[in-house]
Amino acid sequence: MLKNWKASFTDEHSHQDLQKAKEELIDLLKHHEAVLAFQEAEKAIGQVPQISHLAGQMKAYQQEAVLFQKIEKQRAYEEADEQADLIQHELENLPIVQDYRQKMQDASDLIQYVTKSIEERINEELRHG
Q1: What is the pLDDT of residues 46-60, one digit of tens each?
Q2: Which residue from 9, 40, 55, 104 has the least number of CB within 10 angstroms?
Q3: Other CB atoms closer than 10 Å to residue 120's CB: what's the count?
Q4: CA-CA distance, 59 to 83, in Å (whole number)?
Q5: Distance between CA atoms of residues 88 and 96, nearest Å
Q6: CA distance 78 to 69
């Protein structure tokens, strides 16, 4: 199929084949262990009110810091920035957040691997016809 893609790319049949292959790949990824584990971790983290509360506080401090920096209130900027950093550190040390981040990284690595493999395969096919 890849050998003649240049000549027939605009052909409706080939476009349909590509769409079908894309949908099949998406379906495979949706059901991959790494993606399912990430989705479970995402669901679990969303059910912990403390995390969303801390994230909201951190965001508010970050926004204050930006505002204070813009209006050249250096001391207020440093205090707000420090508070945001403290909350970020607290969040990062929660086991559920660490688990979430690891599973997010695993899912991201999977997608990057698949993307790179497809790119390499296409380039190889184009080089060698």
Answers
A1: 999 999 999 999 999
A2: 9
A3: 10
A4: 10
A5: 14
A6: 9
Please answer whether residues 91 and 54 qualify as being in contact, where contact means their C-beta atoms are separated by less than 8 angstroms.
Answer: yes
Phi, psi for residue 43 in degrees, rounded to 5: -65, -45
What tokens does 123 get?
């380039």
> DSSP letter at 1?
-
Total count of residues recorded for the chain:
129
HSE at residue 52, side-chain half, CA atoms within 13 A, is 8
Q: Quote the tokens at residue 111.
A: 């997608």
pTM of the predicted model, to two decimals? 0.74
3-state secondary structure of 81: helix
Q: Which two tokens stand for residue 67?
A: 């505002």
Check: CB of residue 76 under 8 Å from CB of residue 68: yes
**87 close to 53: Cβ distance less than 8 angstroms:** no
* Residue 31 CB contacts under 8 Å (≥ 6 apart), including other chains: none
Residue 102 carries which side chain, given as an amino acid letter? Q
